[in-house]
Write a structure and sequence with these properties.
This protein is 20% helix and 52% strand. The protein has 92 residues and is an alpha+beta fold. The protein has one domain: Immunoglobulin-like.
């Protein structure tokens, strides 16, 4: 089955059962709390980590958090929490 067809079937399945698409489609969920914290749920791994930039893989692409004094406050296979002075969050 082609990826686009599979994706559409999963989306319809989620709608029919009233499930969050992020669960069925394995998409990342990004919570931004003011300018001091970002939580990424359903990431696919850490790519880069510096005090100015944190990059993580996601099904949709690359999630890039930039700012200053960034630190990973918590990290697990499913979620990560980044704290610091958040300037920008991008999905590439």
């Amino acid at each position: 089955m082609r990826p686009a067809v599979r994706h559409n079937l999963k989306r319809k399945f989620a709608q029919t059962l009233d499930l969050p698409p992020s669960v069925v489609l394995d998409q990342a969920v990004i919570h931004i709390l003011g300018d001091g914290e970002v939580q990424i749920v359903n990431h696919k791994g850490l790519v880069q980590y510096t005090a100015a930039c944190v990059k993580a893989r996601a099904v949709q692409g690359m999630i890039e958090v930039s700012g200053s004094e960034l630190e990973i406050a918590s990290f697990s296979a499913q979620q990560m929490k980044i704290r610091g002075r958040i300037r920008q969050v991008m999905l590439k």
